[in-house]
Design a protein that fits this description.
Length: 309
């Protein structure tokens, strides 16, 4: 209660109207949620090269839930890919970068899609096809994140462990859409799919030439993916914590504790909570995060983990 009162009093003070509001929100944001960050096993911090992924014994041996993280990038995103490799990406059991052109120095996988922001939908379904063809048995969950997302993978792993990975689950930051009964999961904050979800998408959508949804690479990948999946037997989940606060944040940490309801502008599928109650202490992802801020976020997560021992 003392912490909540402190946060509220600061939010109502002149600090949030000063030029230092971002520093105050940064400190308070981390103070609020990092108490619940799970400490990962330090022996599993290696990134698996895509050529080694065929041997499933090489990934996931230290974790009860195996997660393959995949990140669509542009051909100009090498620096961002390197930062992800240095920070949250090393906590995944495997990490893949999907681009329009293979780059062995990252390494990234070349997909048959034009390198453009407008072709994110094409890069998404071709990425899922690549996973289906090469790595479907290498993980229990497949988590897609943007290259400007920071992921607390330990919290993601803990959250996913409560679901049956044999079922077709689909989880993330869920938003309403005027043409989608089940809504969709925001691509920026990232979304998780089980092996069965990937299989159903490829075998009943991709291989059927998208006869139930939109064919062609141009378009919004998150809403288009939901459009393809909503008429299948996919379980669109509620990713909020027991208090009804969001775990996947389509918002940067610097804006997190502004005293208004940010979710209202994002058409939250579930009724959102205003102000300080908006976001979970078990936060999984933040978006957008600028390049060097990935290092800042990672330092603060690591600092908290070191001080919990």
């Amino acid at each position: 209660m003392r912490r909540t009162n402190l946060l509220r009093s600061l939010c109502e003070s002149n600090l949030f109207r000063s030029r230092y509001w971002w520093l105050v929100t940064l400190i308070l944001g981390w103070y609020s949620f990092l108490g619940h960050v799970q400490t990962p096993d330090s022996t599993a911090h290696s990134i698996v090269h895509p050529s080694n992924l065929s041997n499933s014994a090489e990934i996931g041996s230290s974790w009860p839930v195996r997660i393959l993280c995949w990140v669509p990038i542009s051909t100009n995103s090498k620096r961002r890919a390197e930062l992800i490799q240095k920070t949250w990406g090393k906590q995944c059991d495997a990490l893949l970068f999907m681009s329009s052109k293979a780059d062995p120095t990252i390494p990234s996988i070349g997909l048959p899609v034009e390198d453009s922001y407008n072709t994110l939908w094409g890069k998404t379904y071709e990425g899922l096809k690549y996973i289906y063809d090469h790595h479907l048995d290498d993980a229990d969950w497949f988590f897609k994140a943007d290259d400007d997302t920071y992921v607390v993978v330990a919290n993601l792993r803990q959250f996913l462990s409560s679901y049956d990975a044999a079922l077709p689950h689909f989880l993330g930051a869920r938003f309403a859409h005027n043409r989608l009964l089940k809504g969709y999961f925001g691509g920026g904050a990232g979304y998780a799919m089980t092996r069965e979800t990937v299989r159903l998408f490829i075998e009943r959508v991709y291989d059927k030439h998208f006869d139930i949804c939109i064919l062609g690479p141009n378009g919004e990948e998150d809403s288009y993916l939901a459009m393809c999946l909503e008429i299948l037997d996919i379980l669109f989940g509620d990713s909020r914590d027991p208090n009804g606060s969001e775990r996947f944040l389509q918002l940067s940490l610097h804006n997190l504790y502004r005293p208004w309801d940010y979710q209202a502008t994002l058409r939250a599928f579930f009724r959102s909570k205003p102000g300080l109650d908006c976001c979970s202490n078990e936060t999984i992802s933040f978006h957008p995060v600028k390049d060097e801020q990935l290092l800042e976020y990672d330092y603060l997560v690591s600092f908290r983990q070191l001080n919990t021992h």
